């Protein structure tokens, strides 16, 4: 067995990002940039008003003195002339500041009388002007390669005046659940020894959140020839194949064996962690194959760590982008851990992270309750309420 850090380092060193493709900005949400986004225009393009009011030349404006209103400036339709001493231009938020004006006085301080306006005392000190390029300049780097395009990043990309973005190709994934006991949800009650198959559904949801397109999600019985055939079919369809269960050393554990006929080359085969020791990663026919434990908690914990890291690396992101460890306070005690690195499931509460009472690797209710993983090094002594721990959002 190798350590969690060793396994992650092997993954990071072995994965080559998939190529990029150009997509319209409107279709880029959730994708990962393969090339940076550079601003084509400054923002704002010219000085603009930050308020509704009147644009004036500050040096020739005093409270109570009437100014002649010579025009109007609106966003998209600026005032074409200049503002001279003794003049003002009605201006609206986002409108270009006219030549000669250097200040906007809010309309709340204005008293309009026909073609003139005067201002009440106390209209300062803010000048309510956004300078040209005060947000960013033309040629500035707005978003770096490896950025996942969430809603706020999409706004920045649009502000760069870029209609097309180069993003990592959408990778495809197939998921194989193994075990004679598994039955589709809704059918398990019809067979005495059946268990509702849940893990592949959770893995599929996590994969979709991570930018993958799940091409297939199937259940395979514990029959080696049938599983070998199924493995070949999935390798032909997807960039990444996930197999759950069958990772131990029992007579009917075929998760690795089913891929050996397809040239499986293991990167690592076991990790000294709890839960999730049987997790493994390799390549077959040029595709990545990740083996996850069959127990639901073990499967979802290892998927959170290794599947998200694998998918991030394939899309050109550093694994740190999806493994942002934080230091947080404990709201409840943690018992001492054994010789394996342990990931304790916990729930965030107002006073910190509260470890769940049931840490069994097979629980499923606990998965719905847990939203953080607390990382405990091997042989960590018991931790008390209020102590600081390293944790990852689950």
Give a brief rundown of this model.
The protein has 394 residues and is of the alpha+beta class.
Give a written overview of the molecule:
The chain is built from 7 helices and 26 strands. The strands form 7 sheets. It has a 6-stranded mixed sheet, with no helix packed on it. A 6-stranded mixed sheet has the order 16-13-17-21-20-18, sandwiched between helices. With 394 residues, the chain is α+β, with helices and mostly antiparallel strands. Helix 3 runs parallel beside helix 6. 18% of the residues lie in helices and 29% in strands.
Q: Please, what is the average pLDDT?
A: 96
With strands numbered from the N-terminus, the spatial order across the biggest sheet is 7-4-6-5-9-8
CATH architecture of the largest domain: 3-Layer(aba) Sandwich
The low-confidence runs, each spanning 5 or more residues with pLDDT under 50, are none
The total tally of domains equals: 4
Helix content: 10-25%
User: How far from one another are the termini?
Assistant: 24 Å
Which class best fits the helix and strand makeup? alpha+beta
| CATH-assigned fold name of the largest domain | Molybdenum Cofactor Biosythetic Enzyme, Chain A
Number of helical runs?
A: 7
CATH class of the largest domain: Alpha Beta
CATH superfamily of the largest domain: MoaB/Mog-like domain
Largest sheet: 6 strands, mixed
Number of strands: 26
Q: Kindly provide the radius of gyration, computed on alpha-carbon positions and rounded to a whole number of angstroms.
A: 30 Å
Provide the β-strand percentage band: 25-35%
Shape: elongated
